[in-house]
Amino acid sequence: MSVTDETVLPELRNAWWEHGVRRRAETGVLGVFAELPQFVRQAIALAWRADKMRTTVVGLATLGSGAMATFGLLSTQKLLVALFAGGPTPDRVRAALPALVALAAATALRGALGIAIGYAQNGLTPRVNQAAERRLFEATTAVRLDAFDADAFADDMERASRGSDAANGLVHDTSNVLAGFVGLAAVAVAVVLINPLLLLALVVATVPNGYAALRAGHLRYSSYLAGSVRRRRRNVLERQMADRESAPELRSYGLRKFLLGQYDMVMGAQTTEDLTLARRVTTTTSVGAVISGLGLGGVWVLLGFLLAGGHIPLAAAVTCVVAVQAAQRALSTVTFQLDGMFTDGQFFKEYVNFLERAKQYMPGADRRDRPKPPALRRLDIRAVSLRYPDRDTCAVDQVSLTIEAGQTVAFVGENGSGKSTLAAMIGALRAPTDGVIEWNGRPVADWDRDAVIARIAVVLQEHHKWPYTAATNIAMGDLSVDAEQDRIETAALRAAAHETIQSLPYGYRTLLDRTFKEGHDLSGGQWQRITAARGFYRDADLLIMDEPSSALDPRAEDALFQAIRSRQGHRTTILITHRLANVKHADQIFVLHEGLLVEQGTHADLMARAGRYAGLFTLQAAGYQ
């Protein structure tokens, strides 16, 4: 089977959205030139927002450097005319002295301007990087959770992550291209003064290389877009083969050969693409170099013809040689930077487009202007449904229920029944596809979103291990300078985490990440205690706990559920767990099956009904007999 066979790794297939992107990437060179002014405007605008003073210095110094280049070439011509004139050598040297002084001054000033450009660009780079990254993170941290369910969002974000590098590259490339074009303009002025025909020959010698550079950059961009999924798959494999967390199972299940095989398939497809790209780029640049070489030879032939026919003096011919050498340097700068500028410009456009597309996933800005909700009195879920983009059926289907303040309720059911999805909607993490959730009789969407979230604490089953101290992990989200230590420890005690934390090398100040110096790692159960403590620390009106004890030992589990029961009567708690013995004391138990609410009532009511809940409870209880 071929290593590029897409039946082996579905992740290598081209997604539907790539076709439109590829068509845009295959725009002709004329289309590229049409886009360059847009890139220049974007680069200048980005740099200007990042640092106005340094942007001004770079622009003015670049123009000044080009003006000095032109002045230097004209001074060179005057110098040569004076030196090649008739008369005694001392007289010729004295006649050339003003031009020599002018040339030296122009050269020195141009060098000083180059230093100023370098200093300004070095100071501008980190500011541009920070501005671009900040804009990206502002978007990725603000989009709704359903954005990560959308097709191609991860690929869009992966390409947009190059935005800061592309922004810096675009700013630098624009500055260098401007310098190159100014240099070419200086050469053009000098050559036109000698003979206009030389300018035409020089254009023939430069245009093919510029075309080849743009075409090569275009090919690289197309290849980059097409390989987006392969890169993500390769990065995943690299982490799996070299990450501490995957290392035990890799060895336990003998996954080394399997993962290396997956890597070979992905990289086989990528290498084939890279070789094709290298061949096309080499062909394009070689053809451009040959044509430009022939054009440059034509310049020398024409110059020799003009000199032999007496159409130009020797001094002008020598000046032309100097000008052509300057043109080659400027051309090298322009062609190389045009390539980078176009490529960075396209990447930056992906970054800009991602920011624009992310707006459709942003919570309504006007929701922050809406009233803040009072303390929870009642929560009404009315015919709520949610369908994920890649599913044919609803994860939650027309569920209606009511939760009174102070109640402890439980969502139970088999895996995939919709418990966590329903809890995510109640916790304002997801918006219902249909139906409405009401806080004190008013739709949640009509309240200030941030204020609603502030009244809810969610302890997720798939919690994230934040690489911060134990104290910071518990007080996560507390924006005060110093979270209250007593409050942190109280929350840890309720979650049976206090003794675990005290046993760490630095107690609550221990960094919970072994990849850092003096960091420490925790077991799954210990992490679950830290996560539960985070929920208790917030002391919210509504606490949602999704499988909070799946990794806990019996003592820790008992302590946790005692803390949960202590909220009953004055705080509202939604509990999701498969250990049904822990929900016997719940005020209401809601049983879900395949997204539907099939039963509800107290433990006694449901057991007397002898339905789905009674069957699950009896089956689980039998295991303890």
TrEMBL record:
Assigned keywords, A-Z: ATP-binding, Membrane, Nucleotide-binding, Transmembrane, Transmembrane helix
Chief location category: membrane
GO MF: ATP binding
UniProt xrefs under Gene3D superfamilies: ABC transporter type 1, transmembrane domain, P-loop containing nucleotide triphosphate hydrolases
Membrane topology of this protein: Multi-pass membrane protein
Segments forming domain ABC transmembrane type-1: 57-338
Compartment(s) of residence: Cell membrane
PROSITE patterns: ABC_TM1F (PS50929), ABC_TRANSPORTER_2 (PS50893)
Entry protein name: ABC transporter ATP-binding protein/permease
Organism: Paractinoplanes aksuensis
